[in-house]
Amino acid sequence: MKALWRLTKGKPNMISLGNGDPHYSLYPVKKIQYEVASAAEDIEDPVAVWTAAGPSTPTQLFTSSRDEPCNLSLKTALAYSAGAGLPEAQRAVTELTKFYHSPPDHISTLTVGNMDGVSKCFRLLGSPGDHFLADEFSFNALTNAPLSHGVNWVPVKIDKGGLIPSDLERIMSNWNEETQGRRPHVLYSVPSGQNPTGCTLNADRRKKVYELAQRFDLIIIEDDPYYYLQYSEEESSGTPSKLMPSFLSMDIDGRVLRVDSFSKIMMPGMRLGWITSSPLFHEHLVSLTDSSTQHPHGFGQIFITEMLSASGWQISGFDRWTRSLRKEYQRRRDLFLDIFAREVSSAGFASADPPQAGMFVWIDVHVRKHPRYRCDIRDSEGSIARTNVPELMEELFERCLDSGLVVMPASIFVAPTSPQVSKILDPEDPIQDRVNFLRTTFAGDESSMQPGLKILGEVLKEFFQEQK
Amino acid sequence: MKALWRLTKGKPNMISLGNGDPHYSLYPVKKIQYEVASAAEDIEDPVAVWTAAGPSTPTQLFTSSRDEPCNLSLKTALAYSAGAGLPEAQRAVTELTKFYHSPPDHISTLTVGNMDGVSKCFRLLGSPGDHFLADEFSFNALTNAPLSHGVNWVPVKIDKGGLIPSDLERIMSNWNEETQGRRPHVLYSVPSGQNPTGCTLNADRRKKVYELAQRFDLIIIEDDPYYYLQYSEEESSGTPSKLMPSFLSMDIDGRVLRVDSFSKIMMPGMRLGWITSSPLFHEHLVSLTDSSTQHPHGFGQIFITEMLSASGWQISGFDRWTRSLRKEYQRRRDLFLDIFAREVSSAGFASADPPQAGMFVWIDVHVRKHPRYRCDIRDSEGSIARTNVPELMEELFERCLDSGLVVMPASIFVAPTSPQVSKILDPEDPIQDRVNFLRTTFAGDESSMQPGLKILGEVLKEFFQEQK
């Protein structure tokens, strides 16, 4: 039917008795107005001004109207539209993507948020029995998504520099299609401030991973919601932020599907993001959208169109906001790490690397120092734990809960694997022996950092200093 | 992870360092305001007042704020939430559903619109190789959706009274699991103002279909976006509208998943709807939502929560709006049919039954009167056309296009079938011989009715009065 529409829309002055779209005069809405933070040029640090929140805090209005001129009229914003989104909104995110990534030859497709974007990529690229590659610790809600379509995961080792290219190479070189099925053709990775480990793929590895993708013909799903939250040396203002080069920026082959989101830099409940890909993938993503979620809601399309327009923040204001937000999160990170040093790591039972992006601190619990630690457990399969790290960590997690503290145990982030995959895992280094981490965040309520980390420090002391 | 959250949320005074939710103080939005039509008690016919649209047209404001009291604060509306939607929004649609359907024991799950709702039901209930039952003419964007999961369609005959129960019974009774695979366990149907035929399932058939569903253990997906647009005798005001009883209202077994939408009664770009089902299906729908679209956008949840609240329209105002809207569409329908009688049917080459609901007029082209009509074509398969109706209708469709008119040919709405299904189709009455219909609508721009139908009348005359 969409093809039929395209057929007819090429002709001028057609009269349509075809589509079941209610007429805009019957939409009961006349005006939608968002009162937002000002990101005007004279405000250098808009997030600081916003969070100071006095009665005179400057605001701006993003307005969409049915009758008055605006960037995206309610007449079209609240009508049905194509799967890719309204041209105005699509143009807005395309310009934004150009500004930060200058992709070679790509096109943006709107989504209803990051999860929708990633899960659509999974559906588009995966068939039952396929294996996808992923960071060995990954956000479980996402790695669970394609299991119901029969897609399996192959974990690639990560360290604080992100995904390890040599491990990726090892897996791809040693893959045996006869015993393991089709060789993986998709790599799913969160390159900045990875969830849950907080690690950021360094620039050198990004290049190497892209080269490996070329060599083994891998499609890369670049899931990058924390891209704008990269922390580094002082930045010079005026020029574009110094952010790590994305896979998209180096994608001369059209093998990258980059998934972007406003959730972490604006508000999660907005549920609007976008995928940037080659025109070929775009076309399929639009078809998939047309037969699943349909195009995103007009409300969010209005918001981003107005935000990025000349009467809104524009890209320059958006850039001021995200820089300022980086500063704010860097402050929170440093505050968290200070308290962590005082309350937790000083006792020597845990440590953490400062994350260079995102919201997560991946706490390394030195569980091998625990009096009940054992490393003499052997499993015939070779793929499950040879130590009692999982049991000790579960005990620690429960002790935290009993003391009133919620942290996320690493075990829940272990990417689920299939029997075919176990052959490729290192039997001397099973992931279950490396679940001695806790995911914590500095994104939440600031006032919970001190009491939360105090509890953690106390629980760890009690846990480690028990009598043998 | 959701299970873990449930575990921890039961405990009071927990401190969380767990979730990566940005703090609301960093959302750059302070207030969202929707200026909408008034549906106050003293306005009996709010749609008429609204479309008259003078400068003094009364409006109401639906407002959500970060700092001021409101029904759904931006603090929660713009945060992450559970897959079913925010409790406030979920409660709003639950109350609405109770008012119109009084379902026995059901619960509502928010969706990002009708297509999302229906396609989630398909994904939840269908496995590769399954057969679902559907009205023989169905909205193709929907029947296409589950094909990629390997679900096939079994068409059930319809007439102007909707789906024919005896045909459903015939299919189910004669199904042979050995040659045809698993017996269908799902019936997908649009009971009111069906798209594309405009037919409405009459009350007697609704009961019979539900009984057959009980007898053959069918799950019914009741896709009912035109429910509120049912046209009938004058209604008494004050009491709930006399609308056809839904499958949901009679669902003592929990076998109905009812899909509702605001698209046709408010605005399509809102992209917010809901599914009402048994608690068991609800639980699975929430899981599916958590790993695909996630919960719907906060903007729409604010809108419906405010709309149905005491400071908004309330259910009574919503009911006034939809009654008034019915009146408006009934007026449009009658106008369309008047013009149709004058410009088209008077010549005797086409006719149409007045639809009792929805937006569509299904024009019956009397193609058997065409000088080039043939009925002597035999196909060994028995399942494809024995006449040249498809060819003639395609020619007519193209002539319309060439004359500047877009109408939808019936052929594009034929539910796609599998080879296993062809055995159950009536070889003496293939659907391809019955594609002599055009879907037209009275929902669009009123000013296009007269010129559009004039073209149709002229094209039909030319087409039928050609020399043999």
TrEMBL record, chains A, B:
Pfam families: Aminotran_1_2 (PF00155). One of its GO terms (molecular function) is transaminase activity. Residues 72-417 form the Aminotransferase class I/classII large domain. Its cofactor is pyridoxal 5'-phosphate. It comes from the Eukaryota. Keywords: Aminotransferase, Pyridoxal phosphate, Transferase. GO terms for biological process: alpha-amino acid metabolic process. InterPro entries: Aminotransferase_I/II_large, Class-I_PLP-dep_aminotransf, PyrdxlP-dep_Trfase, PyrdxlP-dep_Trfase_major. Belongs to the class-I pyridoxal-phosphate-dependent aminotransferase family. This is Aminotransferase class I/classII large domain-containing protein. It comes from Hermanssonia centrifuga.
